[in-house]
Amino acid sequence: MRTDSSRGTLPAREHLPAGDAGTPVLDVVIPVYNEEKDLQPCVRRLHDHLTRTFPYAFRITIADNASTDTTPLVAARLAAEIPEVTNFRLELKGRGRALRTVWSASDAPVLAYMDVDLSTGLNALLPLVAPLISGHSDLAIGSRLARASRVVRGPRREFISRAYNLILRGSLQARFTDAQCGFKAIRRDVAQVLLPLVEDTGWFFDTEMLVLAERAGLRIHEVPVDWVDDPDSTVHIVSTATEDLKGVWRVGKALAGGSLPLDRLTRPFGDDPRDRELTDVPTGLARQLVGFCVVGGLSTLFYLLLYSGFRQFGGAQTANALALLVSAVANTAANRRLTFGVRGRGGAVRHQAQGLVVFGIGLALTSGSLAALNAATGSPAHSTELAVLIAANLAATVLRFLLFRAWVFPDRGETGPSTVVAAHTPAASPAHGPTAPYAPLPQRPVPHRPYGEPYQTTQVRAGDAADGSWRDATVRLQPVRPHDTDPGDPR
Q1: What residue ranges in 176-237 does DSSP mark as E strands?
Q2: What pTM does this model have?
Q3: 390-428 in b/e burial notation, b at 16+ Cβ within 10 A?
Q4: Are residues 245 and 171 in contact, defined by beta-carbon separation less than 8 angstroms?
Q5: What is the DSSP secondary structure assignment for residue 406, as one 8-state letter?
């Protein structure tokens, strides 16, 4: 149980303040590669939608992934004509690389991205970012697989999408429903800490980001979307699926080995409602109830099996007493260790003796129930006996828990009205601790590096726009590692 009040790396989530009119609250990134045909209608349609419906200042950033056609010219022209549009140029391909670069440099508190084909209905954009603005969630994703989603696409893509998400659920225990929908948003304070942990620079970037965020205990909000498949999509399904499977293996291996410092993503203690203090509630009551119910359920099954076996060789009362005696000893030992957290052999004999007293009370209840049944019916069926014993055991269970808690395993440290802190522990890396070799996290975004490997810093040139407006800005990146040229990027 976490009882300290130490702060995590991330600040507590709060509703974003309404800033100055010129300060963008939302920065929507559109990563593109050779999209000279679709870029202009996409940007103008998105800009018109945000102008009409979005209540905060916004920015649209075109992230050009080393396009070889006239896409850079179209992007520059849009940035010159529309004040809310800016243009970034990257000399290396990769959607993940583009998003990391722009998001790391952005000053907007909410960062989003969408595909240039606008397959996702824009009416979902405000519901996507609203939970981030309000402080409710850390990330938000559009889901094509939610029940309320309306999707038009072929059976091949439908099968691939669902199969991929099943793989994520089975291998990485992911709980989000759609990893690859090109419609996501993240709070900037989360992005600054999370993005340096994400290694992929291509299409697996989304999945890796979501898996790490979920394992760290961050809140991911899902929005059902209307989505229409783009028949002219340039995504190469086979190569993309292969890279995704490689990414699943790499991330799964890193999580299993505990090499990810997910403790950097924890929120301050008290930010989660489960961390709040509750007065006049016995310490650990909720956890003990759950443990007692689990042990009690297993003990009941064990008791019924023993009763059925002993019943073959003796009467109902004898079978009940023997089955209850054996199951009571096992029940006391299990509750001692699992429910009330008592370790070691100290006091074990006393606990078992007290447990036998509780057993006697249960025996009286169940035996009395059987006696009443025999008096009422004379020769009841075996199934009727079992039904009566189940009902009697349920009544005895409530009394057994109260006696265990107050008499057999009391909390010796309680001297007055108690205060409980809910047993909520955010997910963290098994490797973190006093010996973990991680330096303090810098305040500004840091260049990407893979898990545990050193890297060379990169020079990012953002044009001559010193006022931070990003107008006509250009970014030229050098490979993070000598071999990081992304030759097989499916874009």
Answers
A1: 183-187, 220-224, 226-228
A2: 0.58
A3: eebbeebbeebbebbbeebbeeeeeeeebebbbeeebbb
A4: no
A5: I
CA 41 to chain centre: 35
* Centroid of chain to Cα 346: 40
Q: Give the whole-number percent of the chain exceeding pLDDT 90.
A: 28
The token duo for 426 is 């955010």
Please work out, in degrees rounded to the nearest 5, the angle formed at the alpha carbon of residue 191 by the alpha carbons of 142 and 108: 85
Using alpha carbons, list the distances in angstroms from residue 307 to 109, 193, 302, 312, 322: 64, 58, 9, 9, 8
DSSP-derived pairing of the beta strands 26-32 and 58-65: parallel
CA distance 226 to 149: 6
Q: How far is CA 418 from the centre of its chain?
A: 31
**Residues in CB range of 133: below 8 A, 6 or more apart:** 15, 16, 25, 56, 109, 110
Contact 393, 222 (CB under 8 A): no
pLDDT confidence bin for 422, thresholds 50/70/90: very low
- How far CA 425 is from CA of 198, 200, 338, 418, 441, in Å, comes to 23, 28, 18, 20, 21
What is the tens place of the pLDDT at every residue in 145-163? Answer: 888 889 888 787 788 888 8
Q: Which of 464, 465, 447 is nearest to 456 (CA)?
A: 447
Amino acid at 398: V
**Is residue 457 within 8 Å of 447, Cβ to Cβ?**
yes
Round to whole Å and give the CA distance between 30 and 207.
18
